C-alpha cells in the first residue's frame, strides 16, 4: 500500500517498506523502509496541508520546531520580566495561553508526517503548556520552576551601564581576581583503638544479638585480634578478624578521614558466645602497633525470670498464694513484679538476689590466668518465695515486669493480654480467682423458737446459706452436714444426748434446702462450696417438734329478750386445744314461721387464743340449726369435727327493728322535701320515732299504727342549706317492746339557688361593635352546670331564645344591636333566679368613616369636591393634609394621574395607613407636568367603604433647568502660567434664562475642591474660562455643581455627574534615591523622575550621554570607576527641560592576595607554626575575613572550622598559624567598597 498513513496515537508507527526493483527478487525481510514523505501521495484528506513536493517533510518539521523555540524564548523573556517586577501578570498569562492554543492546535492541522498527533494528545500537550504558564506568570514557587528561572536569568540577566551598553552585574561582581591565593597546613596525627569506650552493659539471648563498638582514632587498621575469656573454663580464646573484613573496614575509615569534623570511626563487632572480651592486637597500615586500652567488656547471658505456681488457679479467701519467682542471671539480681487485685495495680521489687555461697570478688589484671576467678560472672538461678495471705475476694494476678543483673543488663517484659493462660505468657504471669468462703446458719429456728411440724409430714430445714459467686453466678453447688438427736434422747439442758447421727445434703444451687421429718435437735457441723470449706455461724441448732392435733369443745347459752320471755339468739363458748391461732368453720340453715326452709350458708370464726365466744343472733324468726364442720390451728389444717355435740338447734323470735332502704346520702334543692322508705322487722302494727338534725338542732317525729313492713316517711320543706341527718330513734311492734335504732341517712341541701347575670366588659355592660358582627355577651352563672338560659332583645318583637350553657363563665352569641335581657335560668337540678341589676346588656354599632381636606394658603377651591395646589419646581417637596373621621387606624386608597409636558399620560394607585385623625400626603414632583390626586376609598378599623363623591386635588410642576458639557470626558491641557490664547470649556443650558451656574474643581491630590460661579448667562451655550487660582499642579476634574433658571428652579448635580479633565503641567524633575555620593563598581545608581513618561536624561561620564526612560525611574550599573553627573531632564507632556547638577563618584573594588596569589601546601608537626602573607589593593584601612577549613579528602567536602576577622592599615600584613587546615580570604573591604566570594548578586527589586 503506497498511502501515507494517518496515525491515531501520539507516536507514529514504523513506516511500511516498499520493494525496490532489482534484477533479482530479494526476500521481504531485506526491504528497507521509505520515509513517510517519499511514499506515494494519497489524494485523501490525510495529505499534508503544504504539499511535500513544495517543501519536504523534514524541512516542515524543522520550521515547526524552530518557530516553537522562538515562541518559548520570548515566553522566557516575559517570564523574567514578571519575576523582576515581583508581581504576577494576568496580561502575560492570557497572552501565552492564547499563543500556545493557536500553535498547539494548528500544528496537527498541517498534517506534517510524524507530527500528525491525535486530538487527546493535543489536549494533554496544551494542558501542560497551560499549567506551565500558570506557574510562571503568577510566580508560584515550585523547585523545578525556580531552577528554570535561575537558568533564564543567567541567560537574560543584563542591565544598561553608565556607558550606555548592556552588561551583566554577575560578571562584574564574580571577578575572581579580587581574591587570590590559598594556604593548606597539614599536621601529622597519632592513632588509637578503644573497645566499648562507653562501658555499656551487654548480654546475649536466643532472641537478641549484641554489638561491641570499637573506635579507631587517626589510624587505618590492617590487622585486628580480640581475646575472649570463657566463663565456664576461664580459658583465653584468640579471635582474629578475617582480612576481608579488615580491608573493608580500612576502606570505610579512609572515607571518613576525609571529613575533618569526624572524631573517630566506630566499628561494631558482634560476639557469638558469652564471655569477657578485650582488644588483643591492632596493627595499622604500616604494620605498627596501635595504642589501645585493655578494658574488659563483659558479655553475659541476658537475665530472665519465670513464675512457678500451683496447679489450680482458684483460691479461697485467707489462703496463701504459694508462688515462686525463679530469677536467672549474673548476681546480684534485681526483679520487678506487679500484683493486680481487682484492677488495682501495685508494683514490688526484690534486689541483691544471689545464692547463699556466692562471692563477688573481682580478680585484678596482675594475677596469672590460672589464679584468676571468673565464677562471679557466671549466671546463677535464685528462687524467691511469695507466700502472701490472699485477704481480698476477686481476681489476683502476679506479673513479672523486668529483671536486671549485676552489670545493668535489663529485660523488660510486655504487659500480658487478657488470655493469661496462653503458652508464651504462662512463665511470666500467674492469675488466681479468690472466692469467698461459704457461710451457713439456722434462720428462724433455735431452742427457744422450735420448728413445729405436723405428725407424718416433712419440713424444710431452715438453713441460711451465703455462697460465693462463680463466673458471675451466685447459685452454686454446696454440701451441708449436721448432727441429729431424737427428741427423747435430749438431755435436761436441751443438748444432744448419747444417740447422735450425722446427716448431709448436697444442693445444686443456693435455693435447694434439706428436708427432714423426724422430731429432734439438728445442729449444723460444716458447709462446703467448690473447693472452699465454709463457716458455721450461730444460731446453728434447730429443734423440731410434733405438736398435738387440735380439738374443740362447745358450751351454749340462750340469749333472752329483756322485754319478752322468748329467745332472740344463742351464745356459744368455744374451748380449743392445739396451737393458736384457730379457725373454726360452721354452717347454718333455718325454717321460717311459714314452714319454708332456706338454703345452707357457711360461716367461719377465728380465735387467737384457746378460748373464745360466738354470739348467734338471727334477724328473722324461725327454727335454726348450726353444724361445726372443721378446725385449723397453727400447724394442722382442716381437721374434721364430728359427733352430735357439734350440732346446735334453736327457735328464735327476734326483737322489733327498722332500717332505711336505698342510698344513705342524698342531694336536694333548697326548699325541697325528702321522702325515704323504711323497712320494719317484727309483727305489726309498728310505732316509729325518727328525728331531723341540722346545725346542732333536732326535731323528733312519731308515727303510730303502721301496718306495712315498708313505709315511706316525708320531711317538711328544707328551707336552709347545709347538711341534714335523718335518724331512726326507736320502734315497737305488737308486743309493745321498744327497740333502740341507729339507722340514719345524710341529706345535703343546696345553700343557695342558681343565679344568672351578664358579666362586665371593660367595667360596663355595653359594647360598641362593627355593624353585623356576632357579639359575645358574657354570662356569670352560679350553680351546677350545665345551665339553660332564656333571653330576648327588648328592641325587637322576636320570641325569647333558650340556650344551653356549659361553663359558669359562658357567653350568649347575638348579631343585633339593642338591649338584651335574661328572663329565666335553670341549672342541672334546680330552677334559679336572675339578678335584676345585671340582667340587661346594650349593643351599639360604630359610625362609618369620612374624609376631608385641611385648609391652607396654597389650596384653592375649584368646583364641586375639586381643589387646586400652587405650582412648584420639579423635585421640590410639597404636600397637603387630610381630616380623617372614624375609628383609627385608617387606610386610604387613591390614584395619581400625571400628564407630562410631552408624551402620554400615566396613572398609579397608592394607599397609606394612618393612626391619627390627620394624615399628610406627599405630592409627586419627580416629573414636570400636571398631576391629579383622586381619593376614592377610606377604611378605618371597623369599615372599608368606597366614597360615592371622591375628593380631587390638582397641581402643575415646572421642569428644572439643565447644564451639560458640550464634550463631556474631554481632557484639556493648561500650563501653570496663563497663556494669551487658551482653550475654553463649552457648556449647554436648557430652561428659562437667565441662568446661574456654579462650577466645582476637584483636585487629584485630595485637597478640598474649589467652587466658583458664573452669574447671569443669557444664552443657552457658553464657554468657560477657569481662573488660575482654582487650579493645582497636575490633573483636576471640572464638573457642573448647580444651575438655576428664571423660574427659580434649580438643579444640583451629584459627584458622579459628567465632567472634563484639566491638566496643569510644570517642568519635570529628577531626584536620587540614595543621598550618598560614593558608589562602588557593580552597584546600581538609581533616580526617581517626576513628570509624564517618557523622559530624556542628559549626564556626563567620560563624555556626554543622553538616555531615555519609559518609566518614572532611571537606573544605571556602575561598570567602571569614574565621575557620574546628571545635567538635565525633560518629559513628553510639558516639553520643558530642567537643568540640574547631581554628581556621583564610582570607586573600584578592593583586592587581596594570600601567599602572593599562589596555592601553597605546608606540612608541620604538632606544636609548629607558619607565616601567612596578605597583600591588599584599594584605599586603606582594609577589613578582611579569612577562614580555616578542613583539608579536603577524597569523596568528602571541605568544612569550615573557623572564621576570623582582622584589620590592616597598610597594604601588607603577616599572620602566624599553627592549626591544621586550609586558610583563605572570603571577604575584603576598604574605605569605600567591599568584595566577598560568598555574596549573592541580586537584581533590583528582586
From TrEMBL:
GO molecular function: structural constituent of nuclear pore
One Gene Ontology cellular component annotation held by this UniProt entry: nuclear pore transmembrane ring
Spans through the membrane: 127-152
Ranges for domain Nucleoporin POM152 N-terminal transmembrane: 56-140
Keywords: Membrane, Transmembrane, Transmembrane helix
Location of region: Disordered: 1-30
Domain Nucleoporin POM152 immunoglobulin-like span(s) in chain numbering: 546-654, 870-958
Residues annotated as domain Nucleoporin POM152 first Ig-like: 192-299
Biased composition (Polar residues): 16-27
A single GO BP: protein import into nucleus
Boundaries of every Nucleoporin POM152 ninth Ig-like domain copy: 1068-1144
Annotated Pfam families: Ig-like_POM152, Ig-like_Pom152_1, Ig-like_Pom152_9, Ig_Pom152, TMD_POM152
Domain Nucleoporin POM152 Ig-like: 437-542, 753-839, 1150-1236
PANTHER family to which the protein is assigned, alphabetical: NUCLEOPORIN POM152
Listed name of the protein: Nucleoporin Pom152
